[in-house]
Amino acid sequence: MEKTVKTFSVRYVQILDENGDVDKKLEPKLSSQQLRELYKWMVVERVFDNTALSLQREGRIGTYAQSLGEEAVHVGSVYATSDADWVFPDYREHVAFLMKGVPVKSLFMHWGGSEDGMRLPEKSNIFPVCIPVGTQTLHGVGVALAAKIKKEKLATLTFVGDASTSTGDFHEGMNFAGTFMAPAVIVVRNNHWAISVPRTCNDPDWGGCQTRAETLAQKAIAYGIEGIQVDGNDILAVYSVVKKALDKARKGLGPTLVECICYRLGAHTTADDPTRYQDPKVVAAWMRKEPLARFQRYLKKKKLWDEKFEAAVQAEAKRMVQQGVQEAEQHKPKATDMFDFVYEKLTPNLKKQRVEWQD
Amino acid sequence: MARLTIVEAVRDALDVEMGKDDRVIVLGEDVGANGGVFRATDGLYKKYGQKRVIDTPLSESGIVGTSIGMAANGLRPVAEIQFDGFTYPAFDQLFSHAAKLRNRSRGRYACPLVLRFPYGGGIRALEHHNESPETYFVHTPGLKVVVPSNPHDAKGLLIASIRDPDPVVFMEPKRIYRAIRDNVPEGDYVVELGRARIAREGTDVSLIAWGAMVRECEKTADQLASKGISCEVIDVRTLSPCDWDSLLASAQKTGRVVVVHEAPRTLGFGAEIAARVQEELLLYLKSPIIRVTGYDTPFPYFKLENEYLPNPERIGRAVEQVMKF
Ligand SMILES: Cc1ncc(C[n+]2csc(CCOP(=O)(O)OP(=O)(O)O)c2C)c(N)n1
Ligand SMILES: [Mg+2]
To answer: What is the 3-state secondary structure (H, E, C) of chain A?
Structure first.
């Protein structure tokens, strides 16, 4: 005997189309002020990005990873969190820190090569930048499990890239989340690239790509948890889906994997040269779908956007970012901090090395 | 002869071996069309195709684990890990299997793979891109550990590593990837594994180092020469199996040893060198053995990296200290 024991499907959500026209049935109930706030944060991230890029070119900060093209994913997801919810970024979600109350200067201190940048404010429920990709999945699930054990009303939001879904830690994190029904939401930023390696396999017989899975959302199914795909260039879709997932998690109804389809519109980092492996025509086509312009069109149709508003938002973002640059550039790390934060108390060995360093 | 940098010499070694031996394949993240983030595999993808220069999914454990299988089935995989700090996810495969497969199967299976990666600090890089993890590999029986310090050796040692019947961890000093150009012979040659090199002869003190620290020792030796101190600089080149005869001969000759490495001091390879030298040569020693190393802290973000890394000033002070005895 043979029979089908289970079939699966993956849903896709888009609320704003490329012209900024909205699907009325799915439009989230956000006030005018909230909609404008979403827009402001996206502008802040873009201004931050451009500023960081020029600072890097001038040698004033180190290697930098651009967020261009992912603003809707970052802003929409984090906007859906409560203050009590924890965020686990990797290295591209700059605005997530700002939205969680971290000052701009901290980010420039970090990218400028000082650990002091990741000395995050006590009230900010966000983990430091995480570079070994995929590893943070487990941390997000761990905090969620602790919250469940402690009966805290909170959920965790973890960002990973498309390539992170190839790592063991990602899968282990998903499995832990599923088995324990952890209040964890995992957002995959599917920007189609891992440096030069494409997300999608085109060769029917060989790799050279990230995964043959048709969607990344379906990876959730294997762990018995919900997986859903959204248009990552549509901030309303990202916000709505992540908000629902976080609410569900806080109610004890389990974890969710949200795959956001976007595109990396810049280089991988300032050390990368994408002309070696990318077709500029494809990038240009995705540029036309980019999230900020799309949301602007929507706001304009709702009479929430005009030139005057734009000028004010831009000016405020520039002021905020420039102030952060100035503050960060006044900062000098203390060399002895190298020793003082390894353990809570300096060990005898480190005490000796600290003295040796000072001589 | 061509004038090559270290990273070009690495590429040349891969090209030579791939050209000669169809079993040699390269795999890793971004090694294909992109030619590696440091361009160590530049042009090889075009030349040898996607089945011999393989862009893998992002998984270091996957890269090393599948390399073990490929090696067991007759290929000669040369796996690239993008940076030192990303070797850690591959430790289980490397330590539990690559290092033990031969012994476990009493020689039925071998694991002739090479694991290459750029290591060390000094390039203003992000966190996890500055590590010197050699101790972990040297401490693991079954692995060989090779660290070139110049273009000539980089090519000859890499070719020898690819031909070696056992797993070799090949650490490339990224800080000097492009700092030096050397005459590098064209085509095929090997620098035998397990042989140290006297980088500079001297009589008063032996400076023992590998990778990027060899240059720092040479600079120190230059500076101290004007003060009348004669330093011998030993480039260890192969940390495992280590050429103890050469290291001990130098220590016996000078009677004074300073070991220099970037890795944290505690249980760094300097500790092993100090232990061996005193075990074998106590009566020849004129002074204690001193280590100039990274501190026992995480490698700091780049604003402080120069406070952490050994430099000629710190090495010079250590030499003056041993000369006082
Ligand atoms: C474990 C690990 N291996 C390798 C790297 C080097 N690296 C940094 S980012 C990156 C690509 C990651 O791609 P993805 O997860 O899709 O995120 P994206 O950079 O596209 O945002 C690689 C290979 C790393 N940071 N961590
Ligand atoms: Mg990606």
So the answer is: CCCCCCCCCCEEECCECCCCCECCCCCCCCCHHHHHHHHHHHHHHHHHHHHHHHHHHCCCCCCCCCCCCCHHHHHHHHHCCCCCCEEECCCCCHHHHHHCCCCHHHHHHHHCCCHHHHCCCCCCCECCCCCCCCCHHHHHHHHHHHHHHCCCCCCEEEEEECHHHHCHHHHHHHHHHHHHCCCEEEEEEECCEECCEECECCCCCCCCCCECCCCCHHHHHHHCCEEEEEECCCHHHHHHHHHHHHHHHHCCCCCEEEEEECCCCCCCCCCCCHHHCCCHHHHHHHHCCCHHHHHHHHHHHCCCCCHHHHHHHHHHHHHHHHHHHHHHHHCCCCCCHHHHCCCCCCCHHHHHHHHHHHC
